[in-house]
Amino acid sequence: MGEAHFSTFKSVKDIAKIKTRIFDGLSSTTGVAIINKDTLYADYLIDKAHENASNVLTYSINKDAKADLTVDNIKYNKESIELSITNQDNKSEIYRLNTISEGMVSNTLASILTLKSLHLPIKQELLNDFKPFSKILALKEIHAKTHKLTLLDDTHNASLPAMINAIRAFNSQTKFYSGHKIIAIGKISDLGRKSNETHLRLVEELENSNADYILCKDNELRQVVNKVRNKNITWYPNKELLINDLKYLCNEDSLTLLKSSVTGTDFPEIAKNLPNILRDNNIEFDFDDLFEKLSEVGKSYIKINNKTGEIVEEYNSGLSQTIEGMGPLIYYLKSIDEKLENRIINLKSWPTNNAKKGYFEGLEIRTYTLLENMTESPYPSQIYELANELFKNHVDRKQYINNLIKELKLSTSIATNLTGRFRSKDRQSYTVKDLFEIYKHYKYDLFKFSNSFVLGLKYKSGFIRGKEETIIFTSYNDLEYLKSTIDF
Question: Which tens digits make up the pLDDT trace of 195-208?
């Protein structure tokens, strides 16, 4: 019994009530009910079983539990489990399972009790050929072009207990791998109104996991990412960006858990496509900081002829990416579209206000000054203020961004957070091709205040307009070099 199907049932107790109907078919004299004593509402299940059967047996993976069958010890090996059980003759028997799932240990105990109830012999050697179904904690060794790695695929389905079981199975294996330990998860579907509450139960499990990196997708997990502490954990807006980062993280002898529901999320597509993508991968992890590496790799530019609008030169545009969003540029475009009125406003109270830097509540500032500042890596409080001027609320802002993405065919990862600033917990990115699409629609408006429009802090992206050519670029920390390549 666990947290699942809350779109249909109100509580786990309701699920337990429904499941106890299975006991109605038992004979009161010969029927046998076999119950997992480790599950929620176990005592309730046992009582309901006794109403229909005199023979009720229980099992537990806790050796101290008062159950008919328990495990004396569980030993986790690489890709397998050994469990020792005391038999009727008070002798210890060893069972080896070709799985790393604690849940499968419970299933084995249930099977043993079933065989005993049927007075059938228990043949330990039959377990040697046992294999779990595909995508049930299936370990897959992948040989990339430069190294090997292992995926732990458990994307067959998910409930909260199944998600926790997968994380703990992953933890049992990490000591056998010398590379990165990675957890990549999607949402648990069919939770209805209890979705937020249930997903938050993952926070403690993820904080206590052995993962070096945790990658999360789907909106339901964004709150989880924000709650988890002391972990390299990131939320992803789309599967393409998550796969992009896994190509860098899945290094030599790494272990990566993939876990999600099978419906209501495109995460299973990641699990399906990732093995072939990683087999063709020739990236070697030779750096300490993922985002520094992504910025280095994402350095790119294209040059545009100002008269014809044609691309005359490209550098690394196929790998172009950023670690920041384009929030300031988006708000600038909306201001241009709506012909923002130039008037004096007072800076409101924002979390980034800093009097020493000249940004404090009540500061008088013109809207055109805000607009001009968007073109040169603006201070976050200015971005907050302009967004507040343009949008009624968060929903209004997201709707505008989504419409812009659709209209200009931009990447869906261009604006994960409001300011566009880099945050390790909010993965966002855009490419030089995204900037080019914007340029084609707004090439005169972009240079309303100067001949450049620059986004980003340490790594800069944007537009620089010269006399004959405009250069569009991502992830550069040396703008002087770019300027030297065009005439002004």
Answer: 999 999 999 999 99
- Residue reference for tokens 């707004």: 442
Q: In what order do the strands lie in the sheet with 213-217?
A: 138-143, 148-154, 255-259, 181-185, 213-217, 232-236
pLDDT average, residue stretch 259-265: 92
- The candidate with the shortest Cα–Cα distance to 57, out of 35, 87, 30, 37, is 35
Kind plus residue range of the DSSP H or E element containing 115: helix 102-117
The alpha carbon of 42 is separated from its chain's Cα centroid by a whole number of angstroms, namely 33
Q: Dihedrals φ, ψ of 236, to 5°?
A: -115, 135
Strands 460-465 and 469-476: antiparallel
For 103-119, b/e burial (b = at least 16 CB within 10 A) is: bbbbbbbbebbeebeee
Which whole-number Å values give the CA distances from 474 to 3, 273, 415, 461, in the listed order? 44, 28, 15, 4
User: For residue range 219-255, what is the model confidence (pLDDT) as tens digits?
Assistant: 999 999 999 999 999 999 999 999 999 999 999 999 9
What token pair was written down for 309?
A: 């609008």
Helices then strands, each counted (H, E), the chain: 16, 19
Q: How confident is the model at residue 380 (pLDDT cuts 50, 70, 90)?
A: very high
Spatial CA neighbour of 116 closest among 82, 88, 136, 92: 88
The alpha carbon of residue 271 and the mean position of all alpha carbons in its chain are separated, in whole angstroms, by 13
Helix (H, G, I), strand (E, B) or coil at 119: coil
In Å, how far are 7, 33, 281 from 20, measured between CA atoms?
20, 10, 50
Q: List C-alpha distances in Å: 249 to 14, 144, 151, 287, 304.
A: 42, 13, 12, 10, 34
- Please give the Cα distance from 56 to 32 (Å, whole number): 6
pTM (global) more than 0.70? yes
